[in-house]
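Support reply, case 0932

Customer input (verbatim):
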Amino acid sequence: MRHVILVGDMKVGKEQDILVTHALGSCLGLMIYDPTVKVGGMLHAMLPLSRINPQKAEANPFMFVDTGVPELFRCVYELGGQKARLVVKAAGCGQPLGNNEMFKIGERNYTVLKKLLWKNGVLLESEDIGGSASRTVHFEISTGQIIISSSGAKKKL
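Our regenerated output:
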């Protein structure tokens, strides 16, 4: 089954599922996958830190990197995924408005992600981070394959 992950959302799935998100600009797209049990999930987080709006973070933790990432991992664990087997990949965190972007949301999203992963002993296997082009991500859980589409080109992540 195909699931579309909107901005500020997260989905997990099993072997038959395909997860897709569109328009990753400064947002973080995080994909995690357990190849042994063929479960995985995808997060499309907008902002780095939930402390700017704790009420919104409580209502929707997936809007923020610092609350969405732990929730993504927890949900994959509930499906039988195990931390030691996880393949973790990231996309997005760009500067869609160019280098003059005042708030540097993409850069800050990536920094918060790296700190969270480091504190929890998790490494990124691969990433497609930065730049100014928007990305679409297709994640096929049966194979773990992730395809990034950007500016008319496709590549495996």
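We compared this against your earlier run and they match. Two observations from our side: The beta strands are 2-5, 9-13, 18-24, 28-34, 39-45, 87-92, 126-129, 135-140, 145-150, 153-156. The chain has one domain: 2-156. Please reopen the case if you see a mismatch on your end.
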